[in-house]
Amino acid sequence: MRPAMVCLLGALLVPSESPGETTWKKHVVDEGRHTTNVVAADFTGDGQVDVMANSAGATRLFVGPKWTMQVVDETPQHDAIHAELMDIDRDGDPDFLGARYSPGLIYWVETQRGAAAAKPWPVHVVDDQVNGIHGLLVGDVDGDRKLDLIANSGQPTGPFANSVVWYDVPAEPRKSTSWPRYVAGKGDAPGLSHYLGLGDLNGDGRNDLLTAAKGGPQAEPGTGEWFGWWEAPANPRTDGWKKHLLGTGHAGATNLTPVDVNRDGVMDVIATRGHGLGVIWFEGPSWKEHTIHSTLASPHCLAVADLDQDGDPDAATVGYESKIAAWFENDGRGQFQTHVLDENQCAYDIRAVDMDGDTDLDILVAGQLSKNIVWYANPKK
Questions:
Q1: pLDDT tens across 202-247, in order?
Q2: What is the SS3 assignment for 7?
Q3: What distance in Å separates the CA atoms of residue 220 and residue 21, rounded to the nearest whole number?
Q4: Long-range pairs for 176-182 at CB < 8 Å and ≥24 separation?
Q5: Which end of the chain is less congested by CB atoms within 10 angstroms, N or C?
Q6: Residue 117: phi, psi to the nearest 5?
Q7: Given a cut of 50, is residue 188 above it in pLDDT?
Q8: Taking the mean position of all CA atoms in its chain, how far away is CA 215?
Q9: Cα gap 194→162, rounded to integer Å
């Protein structure tokens, strides 16, 4: 994108806070590293929120609240494009899940406490057969009230090309070298799929799977530029999943999260075109498209949560080309007001998490082109 266009986008996204409104204060966790993923949880067991991220093959723990850094795994092959959290070994602490894009690899880093925490943490393989893994998501796919892992296989090569897969956590994950794998979108997710969503889109009581494909010159000709979902069958392990489209012609489609935007009891979907322009939402069940913001460039991340604690879902993202961090306040009926958090920040990943223990949700960002990890404190009302 030409610099002039970036300046125009910045001008269009002027801060929208009302006079006297408290702004979100920016805090720096780390600087100087191209970082595409970030998660936060209490890894050390001291009751404080810590941050973990992988950059250039090194998984780093930043111990809060001072953000003292410790490298817990330094393996060049473990270069993660995305990450998730799950208590995989069921020992009461969160473990780090990382995904390498290509050749595809999903692995988990086993959290250590006490004397063992000072040494390199054990790393275990989840799968090395999917390829083009851009997104990971943790959730209950099969309705057994246990967390599963979802991933995309977004490259058109390998045994699970252009697919969406999910995994059961094995009974003994420390001893397993590959998790039980199930294919939901079998070869019908072409066009360089990105991130994932999970939710009951058709109201049948089963969680459906969602993903989006950016398309563009790197994709196979004629593929991508869509947001879609796969309808969960009665038996998600053995039965086929049926693909549905939310919308086509969305150049750069990347992120999507199912949520009831307008509180009518019907599931909707908030989405971003992370390799294009704009933040939108699809109104269920017809999937009518609504614009949240039309000009934000490369909003390649999405957090959906009740940020202002008024009972309806809001959204937050960062446009890494426009260098704008923003959150979008929902009025409960699907009308959104833009609030600019920062005018000099990029991002590839974003999380809504209570970073300071004051019970409201803050915004944590992995800034790839900004080469930083930062968080914005939710102002107290």
A1: 999 999 999 999 999 999 999 999 999 999 999 999 999 999 999 9
A2: helix
A3: 48
A4: 176/124, 177/124, 177/125, 178/125, 178/126, 178/127, 178/128, 178/129, 179/126, 179/127, 179/149, 181/127, 181/129, 181/130, 182/236, 182/237
A5: C
A6: -65, -25
A7: yes
A8: 19
A9: 11
Q: Could you report the per-residue pLDDT of 294-328, keeping only the tens digit for each? A: 999 999 999 999 999 999 999 999 999 999 999 99
DSSP classification of residue 299: B
Q: How confident is the model at residue 380 (pLDDT cuts 50, 70, 90)?
A: confident
DSSP code for 10: H
Per-position DSSP letters for 116-161, written without gaps between them = GGGSPPPEEEEESS------EEEE-SSSSSS-EEEEEE-SS-STTT
Contact 267, 284 (CB under 8 A): yes
d(CA 328, CA 280): 11
Round to whole Å and give the CA distance between 33 and 71: 13
Confidence (pTM): 0.94
Phi, then psi, of 129 in degrees rounded to 5: -105, -20
The residue among 43, 84, 93, 285 whose CA lies nearest residue 166 is 84
Alpha helices in the chain (DSSP H): 3-12
Which pLDDT score is estimated for 381?
A: 63
Q: 114 in the Ramachandran plot: left (φ > 0), alpha (ψ -120 to 50) or beta?
A: left
Predicted confidence (pLDDT) at residue 88 exceeds the cutoff of 70: yes
Among residues 371, 306, 368, 375, which one has the least CA distance to residue 342? 375
Q: Which of 179, 183, 171, 178 is nearest to 236 (CA)?
A: 183
Does residue 285 have a cis peptide bond before it, meaning omega lies within 30 degrees of 0? Answer: yes
Output the six-digit token pair for 194.
């990105």
* Averaged pLDDT for residues 93-105: 98
Going 327 to 331 to 334 to 335, the CA torsion angle's sign is: negative
- How buried is 202 (Cβ within 10 angstroms: 0-12 exposed, 13-18 middle, 19+ buried)? middle
The predicted-structure confidence for 236-268, as pLDDT tens digits, reads as follows 999 999 999 999 999 999 999 999 999 999 999
Asked if 227 contacts 214 with a C-beta cutoff of 8 angstroms, the reply is: no
299 touches 314 (CB < 8 A):
no
